[in-house]
Amino acid sequence: MKRLLIVLLAIVSPAVLPLRAGAQNLDARALMRARQQGENTELFGSNPYETTEEDGSEVPDTTRKERRPRKPLESYFFDDSLRARPNFAWTIDRDFNRVHPATIDTMLTDFRIDYPFYVKGAGDAAIGGLGQGSLPLNYFDRPRYADFELAQPYHSYIYDMENVPFYNVKKPMIRFTYFESGQKRYREEQFRVMTAQNISPSTGFNVNYKSRGTRGKYPRSRTKNHNFSGAVNHTGKRYSLHAAYINNRIEAQENGGVVGDWAIADTTFEMNTGVPMRLADAEAHNSYRNNAFFVEQSYGIPLLPVTERDFSIAALPAVFVGHSFEYNAWSRVYSDKRAPYTDERGGRDEHGDFVPVTRDYYDNWYLNPTQTRDSTYERVISNRLFVQVQPWNRDGVVGTIDGGVGLDLHTWSQFAPGDYVSGRYAKTRKSSWFAYGAIDGKIRRYVDWGADVKFYPSGYRGGDLSFGARLALTGYIRRHPLILEGRFSMDRRSPTYWQEHYVSNHFMWDAPLDKENETRLEVRFSIPDFAFEAGAWQGVVNDKIYYGADARVAQKSGSVSLTSVYVRKDFRVGGFHFDHRVLLQWSTDQAAAPVPLLSAYLSYYYEFWVKRDVLRLQAGFDGRYNTEYYAPGYNPALAQFYNQREVKVGNYPYVDAYVTAKWKRMRIFLKYQHLNKGLFGNGRYFSVAHYPLMPGMFKMGISWGFYD
Question: 148 and 12 in one domain?
Fold first, then answer.
């Protein structure tokens, strides 16, 4: 019928040249003549200047050189669901040729939580505010640093090899975030910037910079964290590379906590800067510097021919060989001067009235009786060679079998009495050889299992052994997944260098310690579509190493048993949300492993669209609480939490009121932190002994993302 219509039109129109058989387009002269006569050329066939066919496909332009089609992302690391996303992120595994998906923070969920140590679970016991140290309330979430444990209080801020993010983005991504609170002189402030760009579907780079801290709500509490990572990644069909440079800098004034809890609970000061602190006149200060670099690369060798239909080699038998290199150097300088403090309620006289008592914060001044400048340095250079075998495909019953060997080169130095004579710091060097292996597999989407082992046959950590196993079972009810996970681990680990050898102006020890042995069992059940999660941990630690009531290293002879039970359930009624996270814990020895019986985080808010798909709003309250217990203390000279037995901390609710909004790509929040200060509660708002949490203050912030 179409051909017949064309023939009839050709007969009727004298301006049209005879059509060639099957032709759809006019030649140039006929087209020009038709346009001169004012005729509609659309009637004579397709317009040669039109760029699309009727089905929307592009018409080839013969005047331009044909471009090669853009090569897709073909990496074996990512499955189809992840690859289909416009943007996604991941982190790498330090020992094995694997990646772990990570979230890109663009939603309102948890946006108002500006302290990073409060995001997970029931949160942390914190020294104070933004930029200051903390310790997770859940014993099983507490970091176990094998290298430079002196930076452990800042675990929630620090970049390292296993948490540096990598991105794959279809369009360049930039995100700016800025939060502030309070008067300029005492302001809490944070600035974050992230930029990520892909050069090709397989190759990209990103930069992350975070500056977070407080200028000092209390005397001598100014703290600043600068954390930078610049990363490059290539995830090709066979070759992959992940590399990054890391810089962490921490500047922290140290005040030693209040002279007595009465200064917070029973006294009102016109300004919080008037609260008396134990190291306020000692000019105590901690300064950290960390420079790190790592590169991990692997090459895949398929054992069957690769065809054009093979999108990646994840579905083919293959062998991967790789190498990992890491350089990590930390330094810390602690300084102070001798300045006794006065506790106005340090004692009572015969009439029962308070009398002031003057004390020294530190009992010992070994090297210098008037001032301190302790310097410590640690460096680790690590090399690993690994092989990964993929017997059938990456998602098979036996997906991957891993094996590797490695060498760690350790260097430590610290100021010692003999350095006065030599003028140089003495260095200690040791090495550690290790071998490791793992096996992982899946049975469709229902079973995910794995096991791993790592052993140090000789060297500094000779005899250390770790073993782990995991199993995840997934079932479905009306397409809703139900996930049951189990994990088991067993560790025999050496004490750190600083736990056995430490020389400073206030603390000295040099004594060998036994290895610590720990066994853990974890079971977790979750229904993600119904915002429900329940988990239980059971751990037994033999010869536990900790910092005792005098802040010195101690080791318990015998075992300590710990149990944690965690439940998270979020309810929703219309636009109302009721989110609950509750943690219960028991310890058989609170002197060696103190934990609160109950810790909870509750969030109640209302969320709704102000304008559909344009502006979404949240307004509500966050509350945190834990029962009373002998919470850890913090010692600035050691930069460690220790198990004090002087005062109990807890039984105080800490409530925030907030409003957050998302307007297209911009997120905004307004919050009044510690809303209940002076209204209800016992007035003892501490989560670490002697260190008060932040007083009431108004906060605001903005985060803006660009995708161009």
Answer: no
